[in-house]
């Protein structure tokens, strides 16, 4: 079945997407055909239509949406040959360019970083009219590098429960409503999922109705809305208590990723004999630079967040394990860090 045919099938019958499970047990999200269509149409209204290059797995909502958007546009997406590499992306971009349409693609931050590190990959990235980047926050250092090389990055926010990204560069797509309730971001709109397959309790807890009958998705993300622009500050459940002080590990990770040499790092919780809980940096670095980079990170975090938020240890790894979605496998990294510090 071709990519466009798969997209048309999803538009006819909907889909069930298994979430990445980066921090817990995966869930199966039920997406109706109407929700998928609403999301794809809202994306087209924001960035236009064109020739899509498929660089993500199609069992991941961002990959599925490339198929759905292509089906709605009456085009066939260009698919990478084999797994993602800079060379495979360059080759797919060359094929897509021959079709004389606007070039569009959807990537995760790790893929963007891979392309920026390859001269041919960086040139290919800059050829696209829009590069949707989601799945996790795009590190500022990567965003700046991409902009300097001419890449047209569109940062997306959303999830499987919203049929993919529904807020682009902080601005909700047409038909999307956003509110903050006790600091938690909640989303409403025609692209919301029906719920979780076989889990009515979780569905009822996650999708709630207000007094007007509007159905809202509780994202579990902390954030704020100012002048219509959404800013995500972290996960509500990614907080530790260190020495009696609440510390957002998402904030710590953003600071750490701004340090040269630590752009691909992940910050996870560990137990601490004195403070109860602390944080560990896991990064693809070599042993000789660990002490120096940890010292720099502790100073930066103390200055920008506060001394209680300083990470306790830096654990070097050959590479960061990732899930099929391209997100870091935080459950595996947390287990690794805890094993290394006990």
TrEMBL record:
One Pfam family of this protein, by short name? AMP-binding
Q: Please verify whether the record's keywords include Transmembrane.
A: no
Tell me which domain of life the UniProt entry assigns to the organism this sequence originates from: Bacteria
Q: Which residues form the AMP-dependent synthetase/ligase domain?
A: 19-178
**Keywords, ordered alphabetically:** Ligase
Q: Which Gene3D superfamilies match?
A: 3.30.300.30, N-terminal domain of ligase-like
One GO molecular-function entry: acid-thiol ligase activity
Return the InterPro entries for the record: AMP-bd_C_sf, AMP-dep_synth/lig_dom, ANL_N_sf, ATP-dep_AMP-bd_enzyme
Protein name per Swiss-Prot or TrEMBL:
O-succinylbenzoic acid--CoA ligase
Name the source organism.
Answer: Microbacterium keratanolyticum
* Gene name of this polypeptide: menE
